[in-house]
Amino acid sequence: MPNLSQSFPTTRLRRVRRTPWSRALVAETRIAPQDFIWALIIRDGDNLREPVPSMPGVERLSVDQAVAAAREARSLGLPALALFPYTSAKDRSADAALAFDPDNLMCRAARAIKDAVPEIGLMADVALDPYTDHGHDGFLEGGEIVNDRTVEALVRQSIVEAKAGFDIIAPSDMMDGRVGPIRKGLDREGFAHVQIMSYAAKYASCFYGPYRDAIGSSGVLKGDKRTYQMDPANADEALREVAMDIAEGADSVMVKPAGAYLDIIARVKDAFRMPTFAFQVSGEYAMIMAAAQNGWIDGDRAIIESLTAIRRAGADGVITYFGAKAARLLGA
Ligand code: PBG
Q: Which residues line ligand 1 (CB under 6 A)?
């Protein structure tokens, strides 16, 4: 620490805070639309926007509406979208067959968006939970989520998504050793240019609740995900998770959730100096919106403050449901 000798009254830290122009000059963290990956929930149908009750302001979008959102994202300067599919109970199965169908909702959406707005980046979640009848991210055998058979399925799912036009494959399943096989599979199929953003440090969090409503998993999910997602009590373990995913070929890494895990974001960025992302998840969104709707906090300020804090902690970018809204608040 330089300047240990600074002392009052010669030094007055309030001096630079007096005026907006001065605060702008000394701001250490800036956020801009380019920092956000806008998370969208998609669904089957035509010209549909279906509200998600636990996420006020978020709607499940049919493919045509997702294309409209992509155009909006482009005009706001948002670089990329992350898509998550709603799947009804009747389309789910133990073998998650729909995950490997090149005409599934995710693939149709990717083709339509890439057709209309080719310059926007598209990120695909890789995990089986939108497609399994038990809502888990992997296959369930004898009461266990099995690792290695799930990894083979994730490779197939990734290839199907890359073929549909996704630019970033983002495994969110937390199986061990999936990044390496996904990389090999993508390379073998001619997708050496497709990136992998691993959900490297993903915690078993209550803050995913509204997301599970949004994708239709809440009603079907049996038990919890603590045998594969991380214990919120752990931090050193997050560094091991991240190290392994980097060694296996991840291009960028993610910490999830974001707001309650700022220490993890900071440590990961510090330790690895990798492109580091954080996911401001559905429950973080819902908390801000619920309090704002009650008049208990200023929602707009909470959006900007929470995103600024995530960037300040060390995230290069944030996956957020506030994407378009935040961009507009920033003057886009
Ligand atoms: C599942 C997945 C989850 C999220 C993204 N991918 C939830 C979970 O693990 O149950 C959470 C996103 C959010 O809460 O916004 N593979």
A: 125, 127, 129, 137, 172-173, 208, 211-212, 225, 281-282
Omega of the bond leading into 257 within 30 degrees of 0 (cis): yes
Whole-number Å distance, alpha carbon 208 to ligand 1 midpoint, is 6
Parent domain of 130: 31-253
Residue of 84, 169, 217 with the most ligand 1 atoms within 8 Å of its CB, for mutation: 84
123 domain residue, yes or no: yes
pTM of the entire predicted model: 0.97
Rounded mean pLDDT of 216-240? 95
**What is the total count of domains within the chain?**
1
**Does residue 200 belong to any structural domain of this protein?**
yes
Residue 289 falls inside a structural domain:
no
Q: Which residues contact 56 (CB under 8 A, 6 or more apart)?
A: 286, 289, 290, 293
